[in-house]
Amino acid sequence: MRLKRNKSKKSLIDQANLSIENIKSQLNHTSDLKDREIHSNNQIYIILYINSLVDQEKLESKIIKPLIKMENNNILNELYSQEISTAKSNKIAINGLLDGYCLLIKKGRNSEGFLLKTNASTDREVSEPIVEKTILGAKVGFVESLDKNIFLLRTVTKSPDFTVKKYTLGSSTTTNVSLIYLDHLTDPEIIKKVEQRIKSITLDSIRSAGDIQDCIEDHTVTPFPQLLLTERSDRASANLKDGRVALIIDGSPTVIILPATFMTFFQTPDDYITRWWLGSFFRFIRLFSYIIALILPALYIAFVSFHYEAIPLELVYSLQSSLSYVPFQPFIELMIMQLSLELLREASIRLPPSIAATFGIVGGLVVGTAMVEAGIVSYGGLIVVALTSVSSFVQPNLEMSSSIRILGFPLMLLAATFGFFGIVIGVLCVLIHLSRLTSFGVPYFSPFVPLNIKDFKDTIIRVPSWMMYKYSKNSPHYKQEKRSRKWKLDESEEPY
Amino acid sequence: MRVKSRISSVNLFFLLVHTMIGVGLLSLPHQTHDAAGSDGWISILISGFFIQLIVLLIWLLCRNFPNLTLFDFSKVILGETFGNVLNFIYIIYMLTVICYVFIIYADTLKRWILPETPVWIIFLIGFFLLIYGCICNIKDIVSLFSFLFIFILFLFFITFLVYGYSYIDVRYLFPIGSSGGWNILKSTSDSMISFIGLETLLIYFAFIKQSKTISALKGVFLAVLFVTIFLTYIVILSTVMLSPEEIKITPEPVLYILSAIEIRILSRLDLIFLSFWGLIVFTTIISYSFSASMGISKLIRIKHKFAVILSGTFVLIVSIIFYYMEITLLEKWLKHLSLIFGIIIPILLLLITIIFKREAASTYEKN
Q1: Strands A245-249 and A438-439
Q2: How many C-beta atoms lie closer than 10 Å to residue A479's C-beta?
Q3: Residue of chain A nearest B269, judged by CA positions
Q4: How many whole angstroms separate alpha carbon A427 and alpha carbon A434?
Q5: Which residues in B lie closer than 8 A to residue A291 (C-beta atoms)?
Q6: pLDDT at B329 over 60
Q7: What's the CA gap between B68 and B367, in Å, rounded?
Q8: Nearest-angstrom CA–CA distance, A338 and A405
Q9: CB A441 within 8 A of CB A193
């Protein structure tokens, strides 16, 4: 029955003639759909709008007032609304109404109506992003409104090549999505791929950026994220300038940046604000901490349970003294610690900040020391787990750091079974996997795989900005001028 | 053959270096010492030079058939039936090489780091890695190898640590040429086996861009040069570090040297060396089984994926049988087989091509 009704509804939507009755019935006579008749200049106008979506103030001052005072019949010259479009079918009219427009119809001429922009916006103020903090970067984070996000991006990316393409996704409820790129920098191949993939999305409704990510990423069976989610406008803008594409979803403060390679997740806006030595050092620390967080627990297990002879004798004594009271194998010991740490981590997310501090002390300090003193874990294990979690917090991207958590357990298992050899096997598997991943056709583990030393200048290190005169392989169309430090030549003096 | 992904000369360098450097590395000084005494390094240099010539011959053969691998052009040269027979023999040979590598690998691991682990488990790990590593196209393999090249350099670096701790006596090398010119030349046939991996060139040349020009050969020449230098370095290092009597009784001199030294934070360098060596050996295995599976998929017309699984299963079963029956024939065979398959057959094919003027019947793509 329901299906039948939907079907008949659909045929009504497609009907070309614009009629108020049809629109009303298609919107199920919802009670916030209001209409108002206005008699002006011997004409009867009907205004149709959804009460909850429309800014009352705008409607009154910009539409109704001029309509009533109108002296000639040329509506388009009299109305103050900034955006006026004609609606020729019920479908367009309904979509407009749902976007917060109001529909103006001249009575007697039902075939044509005007959609006038009167939408209310509940934009919150632009505030500093909570998750991605920087020290010196801009204090501007994205908000929930699509237009405002585009505004935020445009203000820091002024260029005639700034291109916005709009899509409407979802078959039962619709969501607006905008594709943004700089036309002269972005590889047309990538844009083509993105458009194709977005168009193929046939989800009923888009709940968040995650839905789109699920549909368009290259590989789903992998712990590595292939799209960068960010809530910072300066980060998004910097990536646009590197020839990447941004996807903004209406209602979501998270912007998708693509294609993202492995090293994209280790860059932060801070790197480019501080001097390049420091920026490069931060990069290095992040990469190093990633590796540490990945293999340190596995190394500990391998050395403690297989290769005692490989570590120096003094260390063996001190490790042994606390390990001898622990009844479990090192693998079980680390698993207990890791799991309790995961519990602490999950629990602390939803706690109010005032309790979280107390919780940290109780959970971290008290439980940790008590566990060691009770002989459940050893000091060595505690240090290893603590170092691991600290290293994983160093990662600037949440999803990248969670790939550590997913890969860490299998590596620990391999280390517990085969020792150091097992770690090497695990790392080899990860490397084989990484070397095959792509993100929109771009090799994921570039510039390491395939090896491209020229691209190292903005990945593993950050060279000074005047040295990045050639863009990476993915944006071959544009070259930066090489002369930013030409003054140095002019100023330099011969010593004699 | 329709070539979907092409590789450059630089890529060929990585492919060849990784195929050539493999299991031979550990026991090479011991073997050359058996044959040529303290002059083993000279025989390595000589055979390295020979290999350069052979590479040139293989290239001369392959440039007649652009875009065709050995498995394709053997049919053009020898006709359908004999070509298929040759392909079959080559596939069996390649699989035998993988079995040999598997057995040496598992044996070394068991003796040095995993004494308690049953060997079949190591074989099983190798089997899975072989399958995981080979189901892809050649570009993926190349890009993986180019990254893993860092680990070869790493092996190089580890041996530097030796100098600070061990006793080095350069006099062990002297007098140069003491074992006699004839003995050195004779031992080159033994040291040829350390350059095993050359045969894969017969397949990889099909993928290269502009295989007709001499620039295609540049990467190969450099690869052979690199391998020659690396092996010579390893042999000289072991000769200098260990007295002739010690080398005679140590099957893996490099590991023996490394296990003796101790740096502040790590007491067992051989463990690190062996683990990274394990990575390098796997590249050899992946490269060989990729080639072999390609042959299988062409021979019996199945998908690459199934061919990989087939060759992996074959290698697993054969190497388990050979290992537990303690058959040591493989090493003796391979010394001769590598000469036959790497050198003699390509030369014969080249002669037939020149004499009977065989040309590629079909080349789909122009360079």
Answers
A1: unpaired
A2: 10
A3: A310
A4: 10
A5: none
A6: yes
A7: 13
A8: 9
A9: yes
Query: Is B126 near chain A, with CB under 8 Å?
Result: no
- A137-151, A246-260, A307-321, B133-147: least confident range: A307-321
Provide mean pLDDT across the span A370-394.
87
A424/B278 touch (CB, cutoff 8 Å), yes or no: yes
* Partner A contacted by B263 (CB < 8 A): no
pLDDT tens for A299-340 read 999 988 888 888 888 888 888 888 888 888 889 988 888 888
- Nearest CB to B113; choose among A419, A445, A448: A419
Q: Which pLDDT does position A245 carry in this prediction?
A: 92
Q: Which domains does chain B have, with CATH numbers?
A: 9-351 (1.20.1740.10)
My answer on whether omega of the bond before A129 falls inside 30° of 0, hence cis, is no
| Cβ-defined contact of B113 to A312 (cutoff 8 Å) | no
3-state secondary structure at position A103: strand
A309 to chain B: closest CA residue: B267
Q: Is B259 at the interface with chain A, CB within 8 A?
A: no
pLDDT at res. B74 = 87
Residue B275: is its pLDDT beyond 80? yes
Nearest CA in chain A to B106: A421
> Taking CB atoms and an 8 Å cut-off, how many pairs form between chains A and B?
74
Closest CA to B271 of B285, B257, B290, B258: B258
CA separation for the pair B130, B312 (Å, rounded): 7
Chain B residues whose beta carbon lies within 8 Å of the beta carbon of residue A448:
147
Judged by CB atoms closer than 8 Å, whether chains meet at B132 and A436 is answered as no
Give the residue-averaged pLDDT of A387-405.
87
- Nearest chain A Cα distance for residue B110, angstroms: 11
Query: Mean pLDDT throughout A9-35?
Result: 71
Are A311 and B266 in contact (CB < 8 Å)? yes
- Nearest-CA distance from B10 to chain A in Å? 10
Coil, strand or helix at A15: coil
Could you tell me which residues come within 8 angstroms of residue B43 by beta carbon, excluding any fewer than 6 positions away?
B32, B35, B36, B184, B185, B187, B188, B190, B191
Q: Note whether A420 contacts B: Cβ–Cβ < 8 A.
A: yes
Segment A119-126 mean pLDDT: 78
Residues of chain A neighbouring B274 (CB-CB closer than 8 A): 421
Taking contacts as CB-CB distances below 8 angstroms, the residues of chain A near B125 are 418, 425
Output the CA–CA distances (angstroms, integers) from residue B140 to A51, A437, B9, B282, in the order listed.
58, 9, 16, 15
What is the C-alpha radius of gyration for chain B, rounded to an integer number of angstroms?
20
Among residues B318, B345, B317, the alpha carbon closest in space to that of B330 is found at: B318
Q: What gap in Å lies between CA B287 and CA A150, rounded to an integer? A: 50
Q: How far apart are CA B280 and CA B26, in angstroms?
A: 12
* Rounded-to-integer distance, Cα A6 and Cα A17, Å: 19
**Number of other residues whose CB lies within 10 A of the CB of residue A449:** 24
What's the token pair of residue B271?
């463990």
A405-454 pLDDT per residue, tens: 889 889 999 999 888 889 999 999 999 999 889 899 888 888 887 777 77
Q: How sure is the predictor about B287, in pLDDT bands with cuts at 50, 70 and 90? A: very high
- Contact (CB<8Å) A310/B267: yes
- C-alpha angle B161-B105-B327 in degrees, rounded to nearest 5: 140
Task: State the pTM of this model.
Answer: 0.86
Is B271–A307 a contact, with Cβ atoms under 8 angstroms apart? yes
What is the share, in percent, of chain A residues with pLDDT greater than 90?
Answer: 20
Q: Which of A72-81, B37-46, B60-69, B218-227 has the lowest mean pLDDT?
A: A72-81
| Triad A49, A54, A56: Cα angle to 5° | 105
The verdict on a CB contact (< 8 Å) between B114 and A421 is yes
What ipTM, to 2 d.p.? Answer: 0.89
